[in-house]
């Protein structure tokens, strides 16, 4: 795939390569600009508010697929005759029940043994990314959301730091938190497919082991989990700020209990992975 980053101010007249998502906590989460939209001068303030300082011009090569085409192919392969597929948006297709009834996923299951594991002491650092927050264009909402989530389990946020959409800035902040003996580092924002989304690259740079980038649950599909030695590093998508329950709420208790999460634990989360009410 050949991709070129264009500063938004120079993107007027160019065609968007994929849908762009806007989140206003408590109010709106969804597509603000559609794939194929031709960027107008009047779009620039909104794009900057969404933290988009750059846009991609993409050229797919060989047997590569656009995320929207891949989503449609997967939906066609998975959907039985009693589910309806929505139109593709933001790289996903939603399958909806045609009738009331029981969800049936045709997978053999293993019997579970029930137990309760106590939480271990944790030192938690939050790194909030995004030019729109660091530059003061919009107010940060991640601090209060994450503070409340951790408080529910009896933990406080030790520190919140802010980073620009810059791979090295974010990676340095992660390493610094680890050197400061953080046991959990949460990096929020910049987790999706835009050129200003630097968080996955920064986590890869700082980590000694990447467990997953992508979790088969919604919301929270763009969640990343990695470790730097014993420190767990979460890459949290913007949806964690907007939606009450995401894949983060499923994985966090395991990490708080000191259970090492592996790739094998991630794939089965897709069964029952639709978390919205
Ligand atoms: N074409 C595609 N679009 C999207 C995909 C995809 O795969 N293809 N994935 C979607 C998913 S799932 C999520 S979740 C969102 C969010 O991704 P990001 O983590 O990259 O979020 P940002 O771009 O950084 O921000 C999105 C939105 O949220 C606002 N925001 C971010 N941080 C804060 C904060 N600390 N306080 C307040 N508001 C914040 C930001 O301004 C943007 O409006 O991507 C989907 N789209
Ligand atoms: O809406 Mo997204 O699934 O990463 O949370």
Automatic annotation (TrEMBL):
Endpoints of the signal sequence: none
Transferase among keywords: yes
Pathway: Cofactor biosynthesis; molybdopterin biosynthesis
EC number of the protein: 2.10.1.1
Job of this protein: Catalyzes the insertion of molybdate into adenylated molybdopterin with the concomitant release of AMP.
Species whose genome carries this gene: Alicyclobacillus fastidiosus
Coiled coil (UniProt feature): none
Family of the protein in this entry: Belongs to the MoeA family.
Stated name of the protein: Molybdopterin molybdenumtransferase
Top EC category: transferase
Keywords, sorted A to Z: Magnesium, Metal-binding, Molybdenum, Molybdenum cofactor biosynthesis, Transferase
PANTHER family: MOLYBDOPTERIN BIOSYNTHESIS PROTEIN, MOLYBDOPTERIN MOLYBDENUMTRANSFERASE
Catalytic activity: adenylyl-molybdopterin + molybdate = Mo-molybdopterin + AMP + H(+)
Domain MoaB/Mog span(s) in chain numbering: 125-257
UniProt cross-references to SUPFAM superfamilies, sorted A to Z: Molybdenum cofactor biosynthesis proteins
Cofactors, names only: Mg(2+)
Metal-binding as UniProt keyword: yes
């Amino acid at each position: 795939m050949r991709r070129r980053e264009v500063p938004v101010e120079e993107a007027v007249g160019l065609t968007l390569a994929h849908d762009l998502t806007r989140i206003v906590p408590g109010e709106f989460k969804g597509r603000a600009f559609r794939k194929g939209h031709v960027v107008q001068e009047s779009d620039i303030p909104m794009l900057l508010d969404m933290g988009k300082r750059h846009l991609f011009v993409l050229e797919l090569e060989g047997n590569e697929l656009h995320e929207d085409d891949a989503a449609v192919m997967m939906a066609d392969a998975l959907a039985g005759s009693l589910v309806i597929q929505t139109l593709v948006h933001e790289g996903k297709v939603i399958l909806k029940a045609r009738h009331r009834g029981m969800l049936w996923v045709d997978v053999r299951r293993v019997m579970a043994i029930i137990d309760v594991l106590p939480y271990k002491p944790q030192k938690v650092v939050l790194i909030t990314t995004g030019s729109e927050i660091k530059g003061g264009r919009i107010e940060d909402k991640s601090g209060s959301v994450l503070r409340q989530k951790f408080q529910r389990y009896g933990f406080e946020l030790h520190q919140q730091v802010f980073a620009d959409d810059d791979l090295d800035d974010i990676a340095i902040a992660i390493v610094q938190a680890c050197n400061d003996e953080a046991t959990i580092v949460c990096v929020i924002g910049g987790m999706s497919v835009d050129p200003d989304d630097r968080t996955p690259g920064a986590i890869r740079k700082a980590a000694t082991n990447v467990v997953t980038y992508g979790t088969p649950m919604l919301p929270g599909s763009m969640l990343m989990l990695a470790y730097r030695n014993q420190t767990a590093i979460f890459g949290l998508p913007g949806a964690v700020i907007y939606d009450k329950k995401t894949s983060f709420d499923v994985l966090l208790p395991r990490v708080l209990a000191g259970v090492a999460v592996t790739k094998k634990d991630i794939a089965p989360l897709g069964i029952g992975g639709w978390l919205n009410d």
